Amino acid sequence: MVSNLKHPCPDSIIRKIDELEGYGKSWSLGAAEIRDLLGVSSEEFYRRIYQAEKRDHPLVSLAAATGSYSQENIWEFVALVELFCGVEAEARLERAGIFFSHPEQMEILGVFLQESAAALRLHQVDTEQFSAMLQTFGRFERARDVYIGEYFPLEALIDGAATVYCDQRNFTIPELARANVKRLLRFFFQKHVLEIGSIFAILNDRLLREAAAQGYAKAGERTRDERADAGISSPQLQRARKAMNLEGRTLSLGLLKSRYKRLMKIYHPDINPKGLHRCQEITAAYSLLLSSL
Known about the structure:
The chain is mostly helical. It has helices at residues 11-21, 31-38, 42-54, 74-85, 88-96, 102-122, 127-137, 140-151, 154-167, 174-190, 196-199, 201-213, 234-243, 253-267, 276-292; strands at residues 29-30, 68-69. A two-stranded antiparallel sheet has the order 1-2. Helix 6 (102-122) packs across helix 14, helix 6 (102-122) packs parallel to helix 15 (276-292) and helix 13 (234-243) crosses helix 15 (276-292). The longest helix has 21 residues, at 102-122. The protein is elongated and about 75 Å long.
C-alpha cells in the first residue's frame, strides 16, 4: 500500500535494520526494499531521485534507484532516507545508533582519547617485563610495540570507549550503536586520524628512557619541565599547545575538550577535504595534553 504522507516516517526502515542486526550479521538493504518499507510508489521513488540528481545533490544520483545500502555507504543511505522522510530523518537514524553526525563523531573521538589518556595516567611501567622484551627482541622499537600491544590492546581500548560512549546515550538499537562506534573508531585508525604513536607518545618516552638506561637506545639530551617524571618534554608540550592554539593558557579538561571540538569542526576530514593533516596534528596534541593533566 502506498503512503499518502508527504514525509513518511523512517521507523519502518529502523525496525527492519534492527531485525537484520538481530540475526547476527551487518544489515544491508536494496533500494527497492527501502522504497517498499517507506510505502512509496515506484513512480514517486524514481521521480524524486531524478529531481535530486538534476539539482546536483552531492549524495543522491540515479544509481540510488537500484543500489544497495549498508554501513559502508551510510552517508548516501541517510541522504536517500532524508529525501523521502524530511530533514528530521537524520536525527531519528542517529538516535537509533545507525548513523553519527559530525558532532557525534567528534564526541566519539574525544571519549576514546580521554579513556586512553586515563589508562595511561594509571599505568606504571613494568620494568621487568619490558627488560625481558628488550632482551628478547634486541631493539627498542620492537620491544615497545610488543609492550604496548600487551598492556593496551587496541581492540580492548576501542571496546571500552564504545561502552563508555553508548552508556552516556539512550540509543533505540544499543547493540548496533555500540558496533557502529567500534566500526567508526577502527575507520579513524585506518585513515590515520587516530595513530598509535600519537596516543602513546608519553608511554613511548617512558619506555625510551628505560631502554636507554639498559643500553638499548639513546634517550638524547632534553630539557624537561616540572612533569619530567611523567616523561613529557617541554618541546613536546609546547608543540602540542601551539597545535591547539593554547600557548600561555592554564590547561584544564574543560578547556581542552572545548578547544578540541572547536578545531575539529573546522578540520574534520569529512567537513574539510584538506584538513586530514591538521586533524591528525590536533588529535595527537589533544591526546598528549590530556595525558599530561
